[in-house]
Amino acid sequence: MEGGDLLERLRAQGVARLGIAGEIPFGYIDKDGDLTGEAPELAKVIFKRLGVDRVQPVPTEFGSLIPGLASQQFDIVAAGMYINPDRCEQVIFSDPDYQMLDAFIVRKGNPLGLNDYKDVVAKKAKFATGTGYAEIAYAVEAGYKESDILIVPDQVAGLNAVEAGRVDVFAGTALTVREVVKKSGRTEATEAFQPIVDGEPHTDGGGFAFRPTETNLRDAFNVELHKLKKSGELLRILKPFGFTEDEMTDLTAKELCGG
Fold first, then answer.
1. 199: left (phi over 0), alpha (psi -120 to 50) or beta
2. C-alpha dihedral over 205, 26, 93, 228, to 10 degrees?
3. Do 154 and 23 contact (CB within 8 A), yes or no?
4. Within its chain, how far is the Cα of 146 from the centroid?
5. Which parts of 28-172 fold into alpha helices (H)?
């Protein structure tokens, strides 16, 4: 069938299997053993509207999401995955349900005045970010030496490094940075900003991934997603996970795929 028949099959089964990567706030199993996160909660609403009553989590490593989708271990990736040209060669994406800017964790009062990567380079600040984060490349593009970057496991380790004075600044997504500094009296989050990529200001966006043959499901999913954006319901679904008006977007998958 042209465009795939997965939607019909999911309606018949009454359940859609979601690939998740155990990442807060995007898609994870909570302490009560329930599936939650911005992507699964949104998928529950959209699939219900498409006539599929239930969703079921299939947890895996982040790096295994696209291979797992290809080998049919699950029906859709619901992990808030950033849409970029490399991934667009392997899967098809819904339009993004959120956009993401960067922000820094700095000491209270931002004593060095660090508001973007250029400031970090100019002030010769000690800089940290997370394992595999896009922020590594953004700092290098601004002129920071990659071998000088302190790589830590995640934003909590980044917060600890700034608090302990081991580094001046930790870079992450505006959302994760904003959430983690709430627990800290000694640090603050900077204003969100756009990193520079290939000389242009860049905004990331995340969405749902589908097998390239399943355009019918992707298109039906997009129709419902756009209705939720228009009605404001999307923000209501994402708000409990720390998303704000700043993370709402009109970007399309085509733009983020570089098309």
1. left
2. -80
3. no
4. 23
5. 38-49, 65-70, 85-88, 117-122, 135-141, 155-163
CA atoms within 13 A on the CB side of 237: 22
Whether pLDDT at 131 is above 90: no
Contact 105, 162 (CB under 8 A): yes
Amino acid at the residue 61: E
pTM: 0.86
| Strand 54-59 versus strand 15-20 pairing type | parallel
In terms of C-beta density within 10 A (0-12 exposed, 13-18 middle, 19 or more buried), how is residue 229 classed? middle
The helix or strand, by DSSP H or E, that contains position 55, with its residue range, turns out to be strand 54-59
* Residue range 95-104: mean pLDDT, rounded: 97
Q: Is the distance from CB of 144 to CB of 121 less than 8 angstroms?
A: yes
Strand, helix or coil for residue 26: coil
Please provide the size of the chain in residues: 259
